Amino acid sequence: MRRIVAARRIMNDALGHFDADDGWSMASHLALSALMALFPFLIFATALASFLGANAFADTAVHLVFDTWPQEIAEPIAREVFNVLTIQRGDFLTVSVIAAALFASNGIEALRVSLNRAYRVTETRSFIYRRLQSFAFVFIATMGFLAISVLLVLAPLAARIAERQFVWLGPYMGTITLWRYVIASSVLVVGLIAVHFWLPAGKRKFVDVIPGIILTLAGWLAGSTLFAAYLERFSTYVSTYAGLASIMIAVIFLYIVSIIFIMGGEFNAAIRRYREARARIRG
Questions:
Q1: What letter would DSSP give residue 14?
Q2: Which string of b and e fits 71-105 if b means at least 16 CB within 10 Å?
Q3: Which stretches of the chain are DSSP H helices?
Q4: Helix 23-51 vs helix 71-85: crossing angle, to nearest 10
Q5: Which residues of the chain have pLDDT under 70?
Q6: What is the pTM of this model?
Q7: In a 3-state reduction of DSSP, which class is residue 36?
Q8: Where on the tree of life does the source sit, at the highest rank (predicted)?
C-alpha cells in the first residue's frame, strides 16, 4: 500500500512540475530542435566519415537513427535522407559542413535546457564549456557511428568464419538485420544514459537516472506503437498535407518522443525529491 501511495505522489509531482514549468512548450522546442539537428548531424557525420575513407557510412547511419522509429514514420524520411547523404561533396572543411556541426550541437543544447528544467537545476557552467561539450557529444556520436559502420561491414565476414570453425554457432548468429536492430537499440540506451548523466547541471549517480530512462524507453515503445497504429488505420495526413505529410508526421512523432523524454527527467527529479522528503521526516 505504501508503495502505491509513493508511486502516486512521485507521478503527481512529476506531472505537476511538467505542466507548471511549460513542459508542453518545451517539448515543442525540443522536437523542432531535434528535427533541425538530425539532418545536419547526419550530413556532418557522413562528410567526416568520407573524409576518413568510410564511404559506406551513410547506410549504417540511416539504419542506426531510423531503425528505432516505427516503419510507417521512418521509411519515407530515411529514403530521402539516404539520397541526400549519398550526394558527392567537395572538401570536408567547408562552411556548410561546419554549419551542420553547429546545428547538430544546437540540438544537444536543447536537450540540456529541457533536462535542466526537468531536474529543477540552474545552469552555472560557462557558455564556452557548454558549447564545447555539445560539440564533443556530436563528435563522439560521429566516431561511434563510424566504428559501428566498420563493425557491421566486418560482422558478416567474421560470422562466416566463426560458423565454419564452430558449426554449432550457426543457429545463434542471427542476421545482419537483427544485429542492426540490436545495435541501434543499444546506441539509444547509451545515448540516453550519457545525456541524463552529463548534460544537466549538477551531479547525479548512475542509479539516479535509471528509473527515468526505463520510463522513457517504455513510453517511447508504447507511444510509437500507438502512433504507428493510428497512422496505419485512421491517418488523414497525406490528404491534408500532401507533399508535406512526411515532415508533419516526423514533427508530431518527435513531439511525442520529446514529451516522454522530458517526463523521464521529471520522474527522476520527483523520485529524488520524495527520497529527500522521507529522509527529512526520518531525521
A1: H
A2: ebbbeebbeebbeebeeeeeeeeeeebeebbbbbb
A3: 2-20, 23-51, 57-66, 71-85, 95-119, 127-165, 170-173, 176-198, 206-233, 237-241, 245-282
A4: 40
A5: 1, 48-59, 63, 72, 80, 84-97, 147, 149-180, 234-244, 283
A6: 0.83
A7: helix
A8: Bacteria
Look-up: residue for cell 501511495? 5
- Report d(CA 231, CA 228) in Å as an integer: 5
What was the pLDDT predicted at 117? 94
For residue 134, CA distances in Å to 109, 128, 145, 271 come to 7, 10, 17, 27
Nearest to 8 by CA among 267, 282, 277, 278: 267
Q: Compute the radius of gyration of the chain from its Cα atoms.
A: 21
Any residues with CB less than 8 A from the CB of 160 and at least 6 apart, and which?
none
* CA neighbor of 271 nearest in space, from 216, 201, 207, 199: 207
Domain that holds residue 44: 2-282
Overall number of domains in the chain: 1
Burial class (CB in 10 A: 0-12, 13-18, 19+), 204: middle
